[in-house]
Design brief:
The chain is mainly beta. Helix content is 7%, strand content 15%. It contains four helices and 15 strands. Strands 1, 3, 4, 6, 8, 9, 11, 12, 13 and 15 form a ten-stranded mixed β-sheet that branches. Strands 7-10-5-2-14 form a five-stranded mixed β-sheet, with no helix packed on it. Strand 8 and strand 9 form a beta hairpin. It is rod-shaped and about 240 Å long. The chain starts with a helix and ends in a 10-residue tail after the last helix.
């Protein structure tokens, strides 16, 4: 407190007396720096203009003390307040004018400022005075936005504790009326301090003096959550600071907007990572890049055979469609010729093996009894494995099961399952191939069953082989041998004319007697018809000519009988 203020205090107190109430007042005339009637603006000087009204008292005001405080109920801060008298000529009224300040700590507590005046010789404030007399100045920073500050009366010159207006003799001391308290909300009209009032700032919270707004949505680029896409409402459903209209994953928070496959769909909600989620040919909500059937709608993506191809367009159900060795568009599992390209899958013999690789055309390639990789229909030995199909005799029957090597197994004239080349009786059915004499000729057609005669020679063509024919040169199929001498009756002739067949060295009288006895006395029949056929006429019977020939030979020097055959 200054020395002048102390003197003023003494002077005022000297004429202090009980206060009365008269039509005198102090009121807030106006405020510089208002944003609205009850709102103070930050960043500009705030000046409270206080009006002194001294009317209707009928006496000049000889002295006064008035205190004011600036305080906040919610901790607002301000620059130290400054009190100053207005240019209304107080110096013409008073000899002493003093402004006193009691500060808090930069607004941390109520600041008090006061104005006091007193007369020594001066006339005092005249009756009828009504003007702004005192001004209180301060300023609020932008960070005080939203807080409350009040200007109110304050006690001054304790212990009096009251405002005091002193009129002197006849009137005494007066406590003037006060229009306060006056409370205000602090408002920062340009929070970001970019020189553009928040009311028109397209980005009121971010410094942007040039107000750039690329998408013309009335939201400045610096605080637009989609600066290139108009979205005045700034909707951001997932609250990731990226507006819905430009968020590549609007339902899942992903502030980094990571999009590895660059398909416009963020990794956080990418349906098909690594592929373009926007390409969905069959419109089944599964992008082509991850659709196991991209041209046929199959939202459920069922893939029963787990080959990566959906059932809805599986070419080869139950097999892997991706395995196509011959690249003919037919998967191996359903390809009737998997190693040779044959898109048409032609299979003329309907054996399930395509013509392009049919091992045995016209036959079923799947039937291979001996499992030698050669189908039965083309196997030259279907019951015995012989992959090389060797057939030395070229008879169509493989060596491994050739019944008659070196001969044609297919030639079996008698149908007895023994090929002719190895059949010991090729023209007569003889499955048992019995060969009693072991001469290589079966009993069924052996002309000498018990005598070896592999060549089956039969000079007289009587079906009795020469080796066992009792009459080789004369056909005698019955092999009659009346005398049991091993020589067939048909060739009993040793000497023609030896009618009694006594094997004598010559024809004698006994032979003539035997012939006469046979012919005329019913004697025995000659044992050898040929020997009795003396004239060799080949007749069926022995007749008189034979007797005449024999008599002529024996007694008349006739010709000897012809030789036996």
């Amino acid at each position: 407190m200054t020395k002048r203020s102390i003197l003023l205090l003494v002077a005022v107190c000297a004429f202090a007396m009980p206060a009365t109430t008269l039509p005198a007042s102090v009121s807030l005339d106006h405020v510089d720096g208002l944003y609205a009637p009850d709102t103070l603006t930050t960043g500009v000087p705030i000046v409270f203009h206080l009006r002194w009204t001294n009317t209707g008292v009928g006496a000049p005001l000889k002295g006064f003390t008035n205190g004011f405080k600036l305080h906040s109920t919610d901790g607002a801060l301000w620059t130290p307040i400054v009190g100053d008298t207005a240019a209304v000529g107080l110096g013409d009224f008073y000899d002493l004018i003093v402004s006193v300040n009691y500060y808090g700590v930069n607004g941390s507590a109520a600041d008090t400022v006061a104005l006091a005046a007193a007369v020594m010789e001066g006339p005092g404030m005249p009756d009828g005075f009504d003007a702004v007399t005192f001004m209180i100045s301060t300023e609020f920073g932008g960070d005080q936005m939203g807080k409350t500050v009040c200007l109110d009366s304050a006690s001054y010159f304790l212990p009096v504790g009251l405002w005091l207006w002193a009129y002197g003799t006849g009137v005494g001391n007066v406590v003037p009326d006060w229009s306060g308290p006056h409370c205000y909300t602090i408002f920062n009209p340009d929070v970001d301090g970019d020189g553009v009032d928040d009311a028109i700032d397209n980005c009121p919270g971010v410094y942007n003096p040039n107000q750039t707004d690329t998408d013309d949505d009335q939201v400045g680029d610096l605080c637009d959550n989609c600066p290139s896409d108009a979205n005045q409402d700034q909707a951001d459903g997932d609250e990731d600071t990226v507006g819905d209209v430009c968020d590549n994953c609007p339902a899942v928070a992903n502030a980094d907007q990571e999009d590895t496959d660059q398909d416009g769909v963020g990794d956080s909600c990418d349906v098909c990572p690594g592929h373009d989620d926007n390409v969905d040919t069959d419109s089944d909500t599964v992008p082509d890049g991850c659709d196991n059937c991209p041209t046929v709608a199959n939202t459920d993506q069922t893939d029963s055979d787990l080959d990566g191809v959906g059932d809805a367009c599986d070419i080869c159900p139950g097999h892997d469609d991706n395995v196509d060795t011959d690249s003919d568009t037919v998967p191996d599992g359903c390809d009737n010729c998997p190693a040779v390209a044959n898109t048409d899958q032609s299979d003329s013999d309907l054996d399930g093996v395509g013509d392009a690789c049919d091992i045995c055309p016209g036959h079923d390639d799947n039937v291979d009894t001996d499992s030698d990789t050669v189908p039965d229909g083309c196997d030259n030995c279907p019951t015995v494995a012989n992959t090389d199909q060797s057939d030395s005799d070229l008879d169509g029957v493989g060596d491994a099961c050739d019944i008659c090597p070196g001969y044609d197994d297919n030639a079996d004239t008698d149908g007895d399952t023994h090929p002719d080349g190895c059949d010991n009786c090729p023209t007569v059915f003889n499955t048992a191939q019995e060969d009693l004499d072991l001469d290589g000729v079966g009993d069924s057609c052996d002309n000498c069953l018990t005598t070896i005669n592999p060549n089956q020679e039969d000079i007289d063509a009587d079906a009795i082989g020469d080796s066992c024919d009792n009459c080789i040169n004369v056909s005698n199929p019955d092999q009659a041998d009346s005398d049991g001498d091993g020589v067939g009756d048909a060739c009993c002739c040793r000497t023609r004319g030896d009618v009694n067949h006594d094997d004598g060295p010559s024809i004698d009288i006994a032979d003539l007697i035997y012939l006469v006895d046979y012919m005329f006395n019913e004697g025995p029949e000659p044992l050898c018809f040929t020997e009795a056929d003396i004239d060799a006429d080949g007749g069926p019977t022995i007749e008189i000519g034979d007797l005449i020939y024999l008599v002529d030979y024996m007694f008349n020097d006739g010709l000897p009988p012809p030789d036996c055959p």
